[in-house]
């Protein structure tokens, strides 16, 4: 049933139509090296009212719509659990991932749908491995990630049904931004967990398969498989692993290779988190 | 080591020690001797507290480490801790084995590459190095773990850990809080925080100074420092590594590094290195590593959205905005910027008043003491006194003028103040007579009466027009009877009169009692009509006369009314006069105090003017008004008695004043007197006194006054209550003995006690005695019943406590009839 209480915007953002002859032109193809990740902008301490917060922006390609992403994360806590909650010797972590209604081409509802809940679960698993939860008994922490702008803002993203692959990137971003926000909140972690995505993409004919880091679904003809990891570089541990798709049986890749590539991507992201956080520390020490 | 309690283990230990001691080699013995001497020296004065055996034992356990032994001895014997925790490890672990580091392979590689040539790096570099490398990662303590050797904790003593082995906790640098997108400046520190930080810093400095010297000596002497340095070596290398990594290093090294890392990653993930895919992707991995690592540099500039979100705030902070915009009127020459910066004159007055209102009594009381102490106090006192003179009207208590009321009363050559009650049977024409009287005295305008007349005609009660002067209530007018006392005032040349127009109807006898109790004398109105007179004599004429008598009214004017209806018949007048005077004398009225006047209330004959009717010319006596003027107060006014006043009416007025109306029974009052309202027991102050319509400072017994009270809640006052002075309050009680004259048969039965407006339900508890009417002697004790006309002493118990005093006259009624009147004893 339609939401009649709010004055809703149009079902989708209105962008000038792009007439596509069905083939990807050279401009929209991937310009980066297969093992390069997109530049990020990460800033912590953006929400004054939260214990910790972070804002992550993945740069869209110049002059292009729909390959960038904006996420914000707020961390509330650690705070005492409500009276109704049962005793917990560990910190209770709860994560909420929500797309802003305007984040994607297909407008999202105000209630969390199943894909958002799925992302929340993944994020929770990813963070739980990094948090030292037993230092905070009887307390809870809420991690709320809001996707302000998703990748699938382009109409052809809807048409080509690439959202399922974009979810991978979203999860990677969620993990990264949540990790930075938790560090901003000063919650004890074994390491800053970072997300990384790698995908096995097929060429035009479907035979030139290759593994790329930080894939953008629109830039490729098709994606065969993708993997998102949450990785602790200093411990060399993976806290969460999401593998999607099917590897072609004939291909000379196996799952491990894809995972290791995703780990490489997350290492790159981790360097960024470290840089961003140390910049903040540097600022505060000066 | 001699444990205080001996269990088996201790015995064995001790035995073992002894065995070992026996086996001391010569070198050991020399070392032991030297050590003992050193320890004794180190202990100094305290050396006497430990035995040589203890020192030697300690040295043995610490392998002749003098410092540790001293520390141990000090702790155990000289200044013993609550309980020695455990024995120190008996044997020192072998020196760190090569390859025992749990470092990742790449770090181990660097260890090999660079060798151990950089041992000159001090211990202090340890923490700083880590901090430099992982400036941020310091926040995550577990990171440091893998960089410590496995043997690090070997031969670590339980207590008194050497300084260099203690963990250095570096407070994780907190991300800067602050507002959204705050500027790069450090967050502001509150004054308290700054103070705390300063103190902390001082303490630390002090501590450091204290410990610096022994610590250094300890460190230099430390025998295990080698292992430490080995541990630190690779870490310091790491720094080099990172610096080299950032700078341009030989490509071979870089290649090697990249290779090892990718290998490492592959291995750590359990990937089979023999797979061809890996080799195929190795170059990729290399490139990636070199690119992904410095992705830090790849962080892109914030988008317009982010800039809007975070960027603008510091900018806004920097650009100074004008906080105040000048209003146009400030340009005017007559504008004063600080015109309202000081309190206004009104504010000053209000503040002073408020201050005085609060402090005046206290300050005044303390003034004598304080004046000696400080000038300020005296100032305050003077302020208080000055303010008290301009006291706000409703500030309690109103100031008494301290008048001698009786003197004032005598000096004031005022007219006599007399009140009279008009009684008689219903429809005898009481209200009409009073209306006529007021009309004749020009106290009521003809026009008003004409209006009433028209209204009465409309209502079909033409003859009631004059009565409506007194009967103001709609209910009274509808029913044509007076219900409650109507009070009015008029004055003649010599006297001020208060009219109390009593209801004649039998249902309202309590109201008549209330009126009669306020009266000095009474006008008994008798209907001269045939039948009406007879009916009246049986009815309320009789009862009213009884009540008047029992309430102590002695002077009576009998107005034989409606004589115009019987044609001014002298015979009729005579008949009535004789009959009534006989009846009155029978009740104890004195003949000289009873006057008979033939009148016509409706027409106004013989009221102010003599009748013009020829038929009535036979009457030569005084008119009603002359009769009234002739009648003084029947009783001696009790000025000197304590003040008593029964409340007959209550008016609630604004702001805490309550106005009461009533007749002062006895005593005097003046403004400012403290009063007590009984039976509620609440006190109040007299704010003002109104006599008729003029304000007075005082009032005396017999006057009908309105008294405004302050400091009392109206809920504590009800009609019928008695007010008295707080100094001489009236008692309240619920059990009374009284001498009662019975009009009906008196039995122990439920009764109502009436005194003025006050009436209370109660019961005749017992009849104590039957008394003689004249002498008052006891005729019969404990009679069962009192016959009508008999006098008895009865005990009455009331349901509530009421203010009654001995000597007061009360009326006892039961079932709507007056059954007795009495005097309280």
UniProtKB/TrEMBL annotation, chain A:
Could you tell me the keywords of this UniProt record?
Cytoplasm, Exosome, Nucleus, RNA-binding, rRNA processing
InterPro entries linked:
ExoRNase_PH_dom1, ExoRNase_PH_dom2_sf, PNPase/RNase_PH_dom_sf, Ribosomal_Su5_D2-typ_SF, RNase_PH
Q: Name one GO molecular function term.
A: RNA binding
Any one GO biological process = poly(A)-dependent snoRNA 3'-end processing
Classification via CDD domains: RNase_PH_MTR3
Please state where this protein is localized.
Cytoplasm; Nucleus
Q: Where is the Exoribonuclease phosphorolytic domain?
A: 37-187
**One Pfam family this sequence matches:** RNase_PH
Region (Disordered), start-end ranges? 1-21
Q: Answer yes or no on keyword rRNA processing.
A: yes
Task: Report the GO terms under cellular component.
Answer: cytoplasmic exosome (RNase complex); nuclear exosome (RNase complex); nucleolus
State the SUPFAM superfamilies in the record. Ribonuclease PH domain 2-like, Ribosomal protein S5 domain 2-like
- Gene3D superfamilies given for it? GHMP Kinase, N-terminal domain
Q: Record keywords: Nucleus included?
A: yes
* Domain of life according to the entry: Eukaryota
Report the main location listed first in the record.
cytoplasm
Family from the record: Belongs to the RNase PH family.
Q: What is this protein called?
A: Exoribonuclease phosphorolytic domain-containing protein
Taxonomic lineage is: Eukaryota, Fungi, Dikarya, Ascomycota, Pezizomycotina
UniProtKB/TrEMBL annotation, chain B:
| UniProt keyword terms in alphabetical order | Cytoplasm, GTP-binding, Hydrolase, Nucleotide-binding, Protein biosynthesis, Translation regulation
UniProt key word Hydrolase: yes
Mark out the compositionally biased spans (Low complexity). Answer: 380-394
Q: Which reaction does it catalyse?
A: GTP + H2O = GDP + phosphate + H(+)
Which one GO biological process term can you cite for this protein? regulation of translation
Region: Disordered; residue ranges are 228-275, 359-399
* PROSITE patterns in the record: G_TR_1 (PS00301), G_TR_2 (PS51722)
Q: Which GO terms describe its cellular component?
A: cytosol; Dom34-Hbs1 complex
Mind telling me which InterPro entries this protein's record contains? Answer: EFTu-like_2, G_TR_CS, GTP-eEF1A_C, HBS1-like_N, P-loop_NTPase, Small_GTP-bd, T_Tr_GTP-bd_dom, TRAFAC_GTPase_members
What are the protein's GO molecular function terms? GTP binding; GTPase activity; translation elongation factor activity
**Which SUPFAM superfamilies does the UniProt record give?**
EF-Tu/eEF-1alpha/eIF2-gamma C-terminal domain (SSF50465), P-loop containing nucleoside triphosphate hydrolases (SSF52540), Translation proteins (SSF50447)
Polar residues bias located where? Answer: 243-268
**Annotated localization:** Cytoplasm
Q: Which residues form the Tr-type G domain?
A: 415-637
- Note the superkingdom of the native organism: Eukaryota
Q: Which NCBIfam families match?
A: small_GTP
The record's section on PANTHER family has: TRANSLATION FACTOR (PTHR23115)
Q: How does it assemble?
A: Component of the Dom34-Hbs1 complex, also named Pelota-HBS1L complex, composed of dom34 and hbs1.
The family classification in the record reads:
Belongs to the TRAFAC class translation factor GTPase superfamily. Classic translation factor GTPase family. EF-Tu/EF-1A subfamily.
Q: How is this protein named in the record?
A: Elongation factor 1 alpha-like protein
Q: Which organism is it from?
A: Trichoderma harzianum CBS 226.95
């Amino acid at each position: 049933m339609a939401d009649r209480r709010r004055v809703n915007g149009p079902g989708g953002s209105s962008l000038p139509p792009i007439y596509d002859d069905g083939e990807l032109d050279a401009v929209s193809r991937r310009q980066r090296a297969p093992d390069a990740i997109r530049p990020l902008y990460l800033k912590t301490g953006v929400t004054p009212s939260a214990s910790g917060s972070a804002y992550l922006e993945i740069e869209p390609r110049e002059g292009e719509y729909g390959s960038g992403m904006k996420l914000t994360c707020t961390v509330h806590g650690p705070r005492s659990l409500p009276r109704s909650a049962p005793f917990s010797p560990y910190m209770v972590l709860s994560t909420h991932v929500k797309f802003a209604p305007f984040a994607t081409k297909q407008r999202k509802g105000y209630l969390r749908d199943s894909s958002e809940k799925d992302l929340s679960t993944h994020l929770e698993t990813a963070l739980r491995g990094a948090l030292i939860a037993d230092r905070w008994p009887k307390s809870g922490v809420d991690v709320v990630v809001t996707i302000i702008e998703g990748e699938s803002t382009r109409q052809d993203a809807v048409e080509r049904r690439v959202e399922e692959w974009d979810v991978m990137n979203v999860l990677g971003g969620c993990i990264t931004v949540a990790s930075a926000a938790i560090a901003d909140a000063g919650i004890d972690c074994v390491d800053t967990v970072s997300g990384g995505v790698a995908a096995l993409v097929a060429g035009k004919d479907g035979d030139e398969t290759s593994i790329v880091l930080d894939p953008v679904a629109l830039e490729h003809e098709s994606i065969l498989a993708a993997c998102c990891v949450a990785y602790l570089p200093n411990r060399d541990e993976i806290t969460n692993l999401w593998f999607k798709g099917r590897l072609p049986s004939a291909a000379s890749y196996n799952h491990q290779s894809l995972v290791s590539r995703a780990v490489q991507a997350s290492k790159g992201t981790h360097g960024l988190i470290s840089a961003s956080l140390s910049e903040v520390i540097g600022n505060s020490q000066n | 080591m001699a444990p205080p309690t001996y269990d088996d283990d201790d015995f064995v230990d001790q035995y073992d020690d002894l065995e070992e001691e026996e086996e001391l080699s010569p070198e050991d013995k020399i070392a032991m001797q030297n050590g003992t001497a050193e320890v004794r020296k180190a202990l100094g004065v305290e050396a006497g507290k430990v035995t040589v055996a203890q020192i030697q034992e300690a040295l043995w356990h610490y392998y002749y480490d003098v410092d540790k032994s001293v520390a141990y001895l000090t702790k155990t014997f000289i200044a013993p801790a609550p309980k020695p925790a455990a024995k120190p490890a008996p044997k020192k672990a072998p020196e760190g084995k090569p390859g025992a580091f749990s470092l990742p392979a790449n770090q181990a590689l660097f260890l090999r590459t660079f060798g151990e040539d950089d041992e000159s790096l001090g211990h202090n570099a340890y923490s700083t190095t880590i901090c430099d490398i992982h400036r941020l990662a310091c926040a995550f303590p577990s990171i440091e773990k893998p960089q410590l050797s496995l043997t690090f904790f070997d031969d670590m003593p339980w207590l008194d850990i050497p300084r260099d082995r203690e963990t250095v906790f570096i407070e994780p640098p907190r991300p800067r809080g602050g507002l959204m997108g705050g500027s790069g400046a450090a967050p502001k520190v509150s004054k308290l925080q700054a103070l705390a930080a300063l103190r902390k810093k001082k303490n630390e400095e002090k501590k450091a100074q204290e410990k610096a010297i022994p610590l250094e000596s300890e460190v230099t002497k430390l025998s295990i420092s080698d292992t430490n340095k080995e541990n630190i070596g690779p870490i310091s290398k790491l720094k080099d590594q990172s610096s080299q990594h950032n700078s341009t290093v030989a490509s071979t090294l870089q290649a090697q590094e990249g290779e090892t890392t990718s290998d490492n990653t592959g291995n750590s993930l359990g990937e089979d290195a023999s797979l061809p895919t890996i080799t195929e992707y190795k170059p990729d991995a290399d490139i990636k590593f070199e690119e992904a690592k410095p992705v830090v540099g790849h962080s892109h500039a914030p988008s317009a959205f982010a800039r809007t979100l975070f960027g603008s705030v510091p900018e806004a902070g920097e650009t100074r905005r004008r906080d105040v915009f000048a209003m146009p009127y400030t340009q005017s020459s007559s504008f004063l910027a600080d015109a309202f910066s000081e309190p206004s004159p009104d504010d000053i007055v209000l503040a002073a008043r408020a201050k005085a209102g609060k402090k005046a009594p206290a300050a005044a009381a303390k003034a004598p003491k304080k004046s000696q102490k400080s000038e300020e106090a005296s100032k305050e006192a003077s302020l208080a006194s000055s303010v008290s003179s301009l006291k706000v009207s409703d500030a309690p208590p109103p100031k008494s003028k301290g008048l001698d009321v009786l003197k004032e009363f005598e000096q004031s050559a005022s007219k006599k103040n007399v009140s009279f009650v008009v009684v008689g049977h219903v429809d005898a024409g009481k209200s009409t007579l009073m209306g006529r009287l007021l009309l004749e005295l020009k106290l009521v305008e003809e026009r008003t009466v004409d209006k009433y007349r028209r209204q009465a005609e409309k209502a079909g009660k033409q003859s009631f027009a004059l009565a409506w002067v007194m009967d103001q209530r709609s209910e009274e007018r509808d029913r044509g009877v007076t219900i409650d006392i109507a009070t009015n005032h008029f004055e003649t040349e010599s006297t001020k009169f208060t009219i109390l127009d009593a209801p004649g109807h039998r249902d309202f006898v309590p109201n008549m009692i209330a009126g009669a109790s306020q009266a000095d004398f009474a006008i008994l109105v008798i209907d001269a009509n045939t039948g009406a007179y007879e009916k009246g004599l049986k009815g309320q004429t009789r009862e009213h006369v009884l009540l008047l008598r029992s309430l102590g009214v002695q002077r009576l004017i009998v107005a034989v009314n409606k004589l115009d209806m019987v044609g001014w018949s002298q015979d009729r007048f005579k008949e009535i006069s004789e009959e009534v005077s006989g009846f009155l004398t029978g009740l104890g009225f004195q003949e000289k105090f009873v006057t008979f006047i033939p009148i016509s209330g409706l027409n106004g004959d013989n009221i102010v003017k003599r009748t013009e009717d020829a038929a009535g010319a036979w009457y030569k006596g005084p008119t009603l008004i002359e009769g009234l003027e002739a009648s003084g107060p029947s009783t001696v006014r009790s000025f000197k008695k304590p003040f008593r006043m029964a409340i007959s009416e209550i008016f609630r007025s604004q702001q805490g004043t309550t106005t009461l109306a009533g007749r002062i029974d006895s005593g005097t009052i003046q403004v400012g007197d403290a009063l007590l309202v009984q039976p509620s027991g609440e006190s109040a102050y007299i704010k003002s006194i109104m006599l008729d319509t003029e304000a007075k400072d005082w009032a005396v017994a017999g006057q009908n006054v309105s008294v405004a009270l302050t400091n009392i809640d109206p809920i504590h006052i009800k009609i019928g209550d008695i007010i008295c002075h707080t100094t001489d309050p009236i008692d309240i009680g619920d059990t009374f003995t009284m001498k009662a004259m019975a009009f009906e048969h008196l039995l122990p039965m439920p009764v109502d006690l009436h005194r003025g407006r006050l009436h209370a339900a109660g019961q005749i508890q017992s009849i104590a005695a039957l008394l003689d009417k004249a002498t008052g002697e006891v005729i019969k004790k404990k009679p069962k019943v009192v016959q009508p006309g008999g006098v008895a002493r009865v005990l009455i118990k009331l349901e509530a406590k009421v203010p009654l005093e001995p000597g007061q006259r009360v009326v006892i009624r039961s079932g709507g009839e007056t059954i007795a009147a009495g005097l309280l004893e």
